[in-house]
Automatic annotation (TrEMBL):
Coiled-coil stretches noted in the UniProt entry, renumbered to this chain: none
Signal peptide positions on this chain: none
Superkingdom of origin organism: Bacteria
Transmembrane segments: 15-36, 66-85, 92-112, 145-163, 183-201, 207-229, 241-264
Keyword hit for Transmembrane: yes
Name used for this protein in its record: DUF2232 domain-containing protein
Keywords: Membrane, Transmembrane, Transmembrane helix
Length: 278
């Protein structure tokens, strides 16, 4: 990982090449690293070159509007999140902006592609048609399909930003990422509003994933708090491995617990109380 990060930072051309290759997680993380370290001008140049082959292929008809929109929204969300994190050094602000950018990109894609659900069904038909009935059963409405893709886009963009920030700390500020992430705490009004929206969306079948999108930054704050607690108590990596396994197996119930934990932390400052009681 260190060798790859050093390769990316040796010059713009190398950063552009890594980003243009389109390796999942690695390529958007390269964009995040350049934007975090060198600023918006270099990051924008890498973003433009990375999107050039996608847009060219779309204009020639080799790539569908759906895939083009997903690529643009994903890289755009990573870029926006990196710029906010660089300027504010606030993970809470970066996560909110990244999630909003991802949602805006997916909504734009749905608009220009003629509807997200219809685009997904069309893509399934073109690939053989075996998954059309399954997609129709899973995504019964346009808001459900759009919300799901917004949620996935926010998750993948956040992972790329986290990796880019980790690379930056590894090269220029060893240990800085760990300290920064452990201190992630959402402002109370934002956490409370996000939880209320999520609870409301849980009561409406078509907007379940939209609630997850709104609550996503709060859930990440809960994960950060768990990382801090495990490190503070010296419990090793086992509890964190179990946490992420459970997030895959039972994402919704555990996400609710993490969001509730983050809301409590925003209210009473759990880290501060632990420090005072020592």
């Amino acid at each position: 990982m260190r060798a790859l990060a050093e390769f990316i930072m040796r010059g713009r051309v190398r950063a552009v090449l890594i980003t243009m290759v389109g390796i999942p997680l690695i390529s958007p993380a390269a964009l995040a690293l350049v934007s975090l370290r060198r600023g918006g001008s270099d990051g924008l140049m890498v973003l433009a070159w990375a999107l050039l082959p996608v847009i060219t292929a779309s204009m020639s008809g080799h790539v569908s509007p759906l895939m083009t929109g997903l690529a643009i929204s994903h890289l755009g969300a990573v870029f926006c999140g990196a710029l906010v994190l660089r300027s504010s050094r606030s993970w809470s602000a970066a996560l909110v902006v990244l999630t909003a950018a991802a949602a805006a990109g997916i909504l734009g894609t749905a608009h220009f592609s003629g509807g997200m659900l219809q685009s997904l069904l069309q893509a399934a038909e073109e690939s053989g048609g075996g998954q059309v009935a399954q997609l129709q059963q899973i995504f019964g409405s346009e808001p459900l399909a759009t919300g799901y893709l917004c949620w996935v886009s926010a998750i993948t963009a956040t992972l790329a930003l986290v990796l880019g920030r980790y690379w930056q700390a590894m090269l220029y500020n060893p240990g800085g990422f760990r300290r920064e992430f452990h201190l992630l705490r959402m402002p109370l009004p934002l956490a409370a509003a996000g939880m209320l929206v999520w609870v409301y969306c849980l009561l409406t079948q078509d907007y379940v994933f939209w609630g997850a999108v709104v609550a996503f930054p709060i859930m990440v704050a809960g994960i950060a708090l768990m990382h801090w607690l495990v490190a503070d108590k010296g419990w090793g990596r086992g509890p964190l491995v179990a946490l992420y396994v459970m997030l895959v197996i039972a994402a919704l119930p555990l996400a609710g617990f993490l969001c509730g934990l983050a809301l409590i932390d925003s209210w009473i400052d759990i880290r501060g109380r632990f420090s005072k009681n020592r």
